[in-house]
Design goal:
The structure is a single chain. This protein is mainly β. The protein has a four-stranded mixed beta sheet with strand order 1-5-4-3, with no helix packed on it. The protein has a two-stranded parallel sheet with strand order 2-6. The model has no long low-confidence stretch (mean pLDDT 92).
Length: 70
Amino acid sequence: GSDANDFIFDFEQGKDRIEVSGYAAQSFVELTIENTVIEDKAASVVHLDDLNSVTVFGSAGLFASDFHFV
């Protein structure tokens, strides 16, 4: 499989969007998002499924408008 934990360091809310495709989640409400602090920086960990995630550094919270489902 292609299990992965990816990282985004330069995400700009209101400008960038995270494209989600090929996962069970087909909408924002189906995502599990954990807001946390990593090395003194706000981060949001988006769990796409049990084996794949995206950690967005510099984000204290993500919204439906931050995602694009294809």
